[in-house]
Amino acid sequence: MTSEHYNMDTPDFIQRLLRPERAEILDPSVIMSLCPVKPQDRLVDIGCGPGYFTLPLATAAVNGKVYALDINREMVAACRERVEQARLGNVETLTCSKFDFPIDNGTMDGVFMAFVVQHPSDKPRLLRAVRDLLQPGGWCVVLEWYRKETETGPPLERRVDPGDLENLARGAGFQPMGWQDLNGEHYLMTLHNT
User: Fold this and answer.
1) Which is more confidently placed, 17 or 33?
2) Are 30 and 24 in contact (CB under 8 A)?
């Protein structure tokens, strides 16, 4: 059975996103090993939440910069607090809207989005806005839920299967570079800005 819609702006949800057991199914070090991030990259973590993936991205891009963006101010505050505790000087936390990001277009080497594509009804618009942020040859890594019944996760109707995401990405001007199953519930897809 698919889980109920969760309230994303509560402190309880932030704690759920940061619980240690989450690494058993979504190990940040494994996810980072699948990302084409380089130490000098300028990256955007769209939908950063409380920074579950922001901190590993910042460590991987140790000589670069990570912009951690979220539409939810509580999430941005939680991410900022964790970044400060980790003493990471290469992260800037900012609020954004669904389709407008406080980053200059054409300036980013990579974009990371974990469980973001499922949210807007206008998915093509989101992917075009993300592509606009990237330099030519830039990459976008997307984590999403398979469109199938699971014990936890978003409502089934919001989920996007890999084939559908590939089609959406092509329509937005990306070249899908393949996808990988992570744990039977989630997958990772890499897109390139051609």
Assistant:
1) 33
2) no
